Amino acid sequence: MATTLTPSESAQDRSTVRTLLRLWPYVRPVRVRLFTAAFVAILASCIGLVIPLVLKWMVDGPIADRDPAGVWLGALYLLLLGLAEALLFGFRRWLVARPLSHVEAEMRADLYGHLQRLPVAFHDRWPSGQLLSRGTTDLMLLRMFLAFPLTFLLVNGVTIVVGVIIMLVQDWTLGLVILVPAVPVMVTCVVFEKKYSRAARAAQDQVGDLTTVVEESVLGIRVVKGFGRHRSQARAFRALSGRLRGTELRKARLLATILGVIVTLPEVAIGAALVLGCVRVADGELSAGTLVAFLSTALALRWPVDSIGFLLAMSQEAATATERYFEVMDAVPEADPAAGSRAAGAARGSAAPRSAEPRIKLPAGSNVGLLFENVTFRYPDAPPDSPPVLDRVDLHIRPGESLALVGATGSGKTTLTALVPRLHEVTSGRITLDGVDITAMSREELRSRVAVAFEEPTLFSATVRENVLMGADEDELERALGVAQADFVHALPDGVDTQVGEQGLSLSGGQRQRLALARAVVGRPDFLVLDDPLSALDVHTEAAVEAALRRVLADTTALIVAHRPSTVLLADRVALLSGGRITAVGTHHELLRGNPEYAHLMAADPAGEREVKR
Ligand code: ADP
User: Fold this and answer.
1) What is the average pLDDT across 71-95?
2) What percent of the chain has pLDDT over 90?
3) How far is the CA of 377 from the centre of ligand 1 (A)?
4) What's residue 80's pLDDT?
5) What topology does CATH give the domain 352-613?
6) Is the Cβ atom of 119 under 6 angstroms away from ligand 1?
7) At CB < 8 A and 24+ separation, what contacts does 376-380 make?
8) Which of 124, 393, 414 to probe ligand 1 with, by most ligand atoms within 8 A of CB?
9) Among 390-404, 478-492, 532-546, where is mean pLDDT lowest?
10) Could you report the per-residue pLDDT of 15-40, keeping only the tens digit for each?
11) Which residues make up the CATH 3.40.50.300 domain(s) of the chain?
């Protein structure tokens, strides 16, 4: 299955041509221009091959007859032919430049769009540097391939065939001498192609790894500096770039070998033809003009032959780039509506069978809040025999109720919350919103009804307004900011239009958390899922946000991951997650009195996390 491909698994045996053919859908819209350009280039090349024939005519005609006017006329022909060749090549370049940058842009846009649709599980598995290098270096290689090797492998191939025919027609013995190296050159090309393809794949993957290291150390610069890790980080970088350098050198050696063969053998053949030709001209078996024409044709073919080495190398790199591009594009995006992913969940090997009957007694009517029924979850990349992160979880959050979820670090709280907006798919069991299975809703509907705020609030490089609204109604902005106690934004240089995120103003952890909270409540969602929404707030702000949250929670159904009593107290009831199961549900005080694990979690560290191993 395509989704099981990871970046490190590279297909070794592939057909270069078949791989490159996958580019056709992108090339199709510009095919007319590309074919015209190739035709123009073939024409230009063939014009180049007429030049030796004019030379032959000059040597055997006007020069032999000592006719200056004829020589001038010949020179004029040569000038016109040269001009026509240059103009046609220029025209070719003009023809392809614009459509090919269009192809590159289209492919990049498709890749980006696809990445947005791929499930979180995919992004968990793929290093971001690998994705980044596929969207940049690889696509650039593809554009260069379409602009150059694709056309010139064809053009040069045709030129070589036409040139060889011309030479054979001039004099077939000399022609055969020139053709002798063709066999060893072709054998070298085949051997080279296989080896180079492997080296090219390794190099492009290593660029991805290097990008990942750079990205991580830039994003984590505070940790790197704070822990004095810059030297070891630099060492890791040097090791990786040393590895890449080794691979690039291996590529260069391969290229040098094939170029050596491709350049030397034909030169030797031309030399041999020259000697043989001179002897035959001296013997009067061959006209001087024919020898001149023959040798100039052979020389004119030098570039088309010499270039084959690096054209093949570039094609190999392009095939690798195509392969890397489609590895991402072939990954299956989130299905919508969910019939497909339900099947995928089943295919992953559900541990527990779905219960036919809900095991929690539900009140009559459809308005039944948020319900987890027999939910088992195992991360898709976890070994199949490992215990599931969530094991047959049953949990009912009644309409309008707020439920706090408490558990030791690593007990699966974040995982449980991520299942509600379907960032991950349940392995078995089901989750319903007001009686409707979330996998039966469209993602749009699901995400309009459920809002989430994560522990790590992410701000995009955009204004405060855009960050909070994220497409929601403008009128809601002030109310949401008020609820989240995020009035500090009005004191920013441009108020709600201040740029924040990577390219803008840096906000404190507490400020970012309040914006994330505002973002969660802006669309007046029916269901709110908050992953420790108050963790980065100071005591005073926390009190203010709590007060505001209390108002919000009054009319939504909410699931709140909580680490400290103050957050727990916002909720009506608490559920304790332990060993992948809900082991207790009740009010804070009930659990505090009756459940030692809960009491321990709440008492041990008011700030929250304490390593309690399962
Ligand atoms: P909590 O929020 O309670 O601290 P998590 O839900 O983050 O716990 O993690 C529960 C378990 O799932 C942990 O053992 C963690 O290592 C594992 N886990 C978390 N995220 C992933 C992931 N993306 N892929 C595989 N395992 C994961």
Assistant:
1) 91
2) 25
3) 11
4) 94
5) Rossmann fold (3.40.50)
6) no
7) 376/350, 376/351, 376/352, 376/426, 376/427, 376/428, 376/429, 377/412, 377/415, 377/416, 377/419, 377/424, 377/426, 377/427, 378/348, 378/351, 378/427, 379/121, 379/124, 379/415, 379/424, 380/121, 380/348
8) 414
9) 532-546
10) 888 888 999 999 999 899 889 999 99
11) 352-613
Domain with CATH 1.20.1560.10 in the chain: 18-329
Kindly report, residue by residue over 183-234, the tens digit of the pLDDT: 888 888 888 888 888 898 899 889 888 888 888 888 888 888 888 888 888 8
E strands along 465-607, which residues? 499-500, 527-531, 557-561, 573-578, 581-586
SS3 content of the chain, % helix, strand, coil (to 5): 65, 10, 25
Ligand 1 center from residue 69 Cα (angstroms): 89
CATH-assigned architecture of domain 18-329: Up-down Bundle (1.20)
Output the pLDDT for position 355: 40
Q: Whose CA is nearest to atom 21 of ligand 1?
A: 379
Ligand 1 geometric centre to CA of 412 (Å): 6
- d(CA 202, CA 214) in angstroms, rounded, equals 18
Classify strands 557-561 and 527-531 as parallel, antiparallel or unpaired: parallel
